[in-house]
Amino acid sequence: MSDPTQPPVDPTNSKPADSGAPPATPAGPAYPDYPASATPAAPAYDQAPAYGQAPAYGQPPAYGQNPYGQQNPQDKFNVLSIISLVTSILGISLVGVITGHIGMSQIKKTGEKGRGLALGGLVVGYLGLALGLIAAIIFIAVFIGAATTGSNYYN
């Protein structure tokens, strides 16, 4: 590379400079000078681009989207709705029903996602409670029936 502040060197002039330096040895082939690039340089990190000029380092995000693929705050799922569905499926129906109702009320206030999860947790939780209640009634009926006929069974 050459210093841009110096005048261009004429390759046909082989006279040494008047500075008293030894004569230069001939270099390789001379390359033509190319014009400066027409594309503007990217702005520095601490500088904003000029008015009306788009930044050279990427496309701006569309309206309503956060840059760099981040989620919007309203895209967050309600944690209690997830807990409601999971505990209802695992058979802990009472916890699923309670967390489902709390999750539904939080979703109304905050606008988070997860209404379907909370509703599913409520449905599965209430079904589990109903089946548990029916099973308990049947178990008690069988236990009472066995207790009343148990003493005469061996005679």
UniProtKB/TrEMBL annotation:
InterPro entries: DUF4190
Biased composition regions of type Low complexity, renumbered to the chain: 16-65
Organism: Cryobacterium gelidum
Region: Disordered, residue numbers: 1-70
Biased composition (Pro residues): 1-10
Annotated protein name in UniProt: DUF4190 domain-containing protein
Keywords for the protein's UniProt record, in alphabetical order: Membrane, Transmembrane, Transmembrane helix
Keyword Membrane annotated: yes
